[in-house]
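Please produce the structure of this protein holding pyridoxal-5'-phosphate.
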Amino acid sequence: MKLSNLARNMGASAIRAMYNEALNMTDTISFTVGEPDFVTPRIIIDEAVEAWQRGLTHYTPNAGIQELRKAIAEYHKDDLNPNYQNEILVSCGAMESLQLALLTLVDPGDEVILVTPAWANYFGHIAMSGAVMKEVRVTEETEFIPTVDQMRKAITPKTKLVMINSPCNPTGAVIDSETSKGLAELFVEHDLFVISDEIYNRLVYDGLKYTSITSFPGMRERTVYISGFSKMFAMTGWRLGYSIARPDIIQAMTKLHENSASCLPEPTQLAGARALKSCQSDVDRMRDIYEKRRNLIFDLVNDMPGVKVTKPKGAFYLFVNIKDTGMKSSEFCMDLLRKTGVVTVPGTGFGDAGEGYIRLTYATSDENIIEGMGRMKQYLVNRMS
Ligand SMILES: Cc1ncc(COP(=O)(O)O)c(C=O)c1O
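Below is the modeled complex.
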């Protein structure tokens, strides 16, 4: 008896491979996992604890409790302005929203355009939907932003949907509003659905004004907007995310959700509502810290021989070009780890387009950044001399 093709062919995460190797070592410094190093703000934790103690331990409505959906609607009243009753679905992280959106919008054999290098789990999500992935490979020359022309060339009569992630994991790229406008026009022209994963949209730097692709004419009705609490409020372990889309899409996604995660715990959802209502200053505080860390790590990496990096405008990642070292990404990461204890992720963990790069996250302390980048510099000095 054989396991399914899907199960047998699902790739293992590159982060996991580095993590497993690092487990056998001491004195490691990790730049791998994309999660805030902050603890969730206290007021959010207190809200949940109090709710558990009140005995709120039952099933909840599939689409999410009203209090949270109302808070999400209020939070988005100036951009998407969703109706809390039928345009919002609360999901088990943004992760589940992404999977449900794909399963709702595409059939096996449909083509889905993915901008790569891309967050590793998108590859799994597309594989689980049975759709055919069409890559649009972005490069440093355009600061890892897809051009309208590139996107146009990838569209065929079978294209059903495009996945957009801005700010981007792993490159930190933020699609500028001019490009977003051009992409929006193209998607309308070809009548395509869009999944816009904007989970990092509160983490943009240099005073940049973030523009969502949903803000352009004709986009609101063809887009599933996905976000969540993990990155914004340092709530990765709470598993809380959401989708905003037109009612028929949300209704279909909710049916699928009923057959998978089903619903989220009430205390978690109340905590999410509290976060949206009361914790914007915490988001700003963490954002400012990430920006300082980005500047720190960017300067340190730029001072190393054999590597170069484009300054990312958002999220908390640096996508470092290691091509001058002459090594493959995975070889570089493994050698760096074994010789220095610095744990990084090979760019190929984000698709073949990531060859020649490594990803570093700066969601870690200044001390770790200074020590880790010091070790990496020494490694490169030895290698390049
Ligand atoms: C681009 C992107 N989307 C979605 C997620 C998943 O977020 P969540 O924790 O809400 O499932 C991540 C997590 O790393 C991410 O980087």
